[in-house]
Amino acid sequence: MKPSPLRLDWVCYPRLSYEARMQEAKPSPVPTRIKAAVMFNADGLHFADLSLESAGDSGSAYTFSVQVVATFGFDRDIALQSYRCRPVDLPHILSANVARVLYSGARELLATATGRAPHGPLMIESVLIEPHDVEISSREPMEVILREVFGVEGPGKDEGALPKESTSRDGKRGTRKKPQG
Predict the structure, then answer these.
(1) Do 149 and 53 contact (CB within 8 A), yes or no?
(2) Cβ neighbours of residue 85 under 8 Å, at least 6 residues apart?
(3) CB 14 within 8 A of CB 47
(4) In contact, 32 and 136? CB cutoff 8 Å
(5) 13 with 146: CB under 8 angstroms?
(6) Helix/strand/coil (H, E, C) string of 45-63?
(7) In angstroms, what CA-CA distances link 149 with 55, 74, 142?
(8) Mind spelling out the 3-state secondary structure of the chain?
């Protein structure tokens, strides 16, 4: 076992709700809509936000909504060693991994909260959150974040191209990796 490069500093669940449906329900895991976002900051205090909700009327026993937010840090040297990747790839890999950790916590919280509900513990589907599933942003220009936080020197042949900048919904500058497909 190796030490994890990822360190959760603080985790909070500002929203948790569920409703049991009073109908015959399928005992299978509930399909889930996921929204994941990570904000990297030059000061090393990074934020993650994950929202989950039941996806449509699938005949499941419950509808639900949960939000988890966290602050986290990471050790760049251990991350580069553990993930065996280029520094320019670290933001995407770390974002996916922190979202996966938060998903697991939210899944367990939902199962615990519904443990004494009419249909028993709510189980949501197992998913693999991939790097392109997570929106990445920053208050500072992404070139600054890549250089100061991830150690990217520039778009050389070993580093790849720098991600293009965009503006997130709240007007903050950042980058978002487009889904592959």
Answers:
(1) no
(2) 93
(3) no
(4) no
(5) no
(6) CEEEEEEEEECCCCCECEE
(7) 36, 10, 10
(8) CCCCCEEEEEEEEEEEEEEECCCCCECCCECEEEEEEEEECCCCCEEEEEEEEECCCCCECEEEEEEEEEEEEECHHHHHHHHCCCHHHHHHHHHHHHHHHHHHHHHHHHHHHCCCCCCCCCCECCCCCCHHHEEEEECCCHHHHHHHCCCCCCCCCCCCCCCCCEECCCCCEEECCCCCC
> What would the two tokens of residue 167 be?
């503006």
Structure tokens at 101: 């950790």
Amino acid letter at 12? C
Distance CA(69)–CA(3), nearest Å, equals 23
Q: What is the pLDDT along the chain (181 residues), one digit of tens a residue?
A: 888 999 999 999 999 999 988 776 666 788 899 999 999 999 999 999 999 999 876 678 889 999 999 999 999 999 999 999 999 999 999 999 999 999 999 999 999 999 999 888 999 999 999 999 999 999 999 999 999 999 998 664 444 444 444 334 344 444 444 444 4
Q: Which residues pair with 65 in a beta bridge?
A: 17, 53
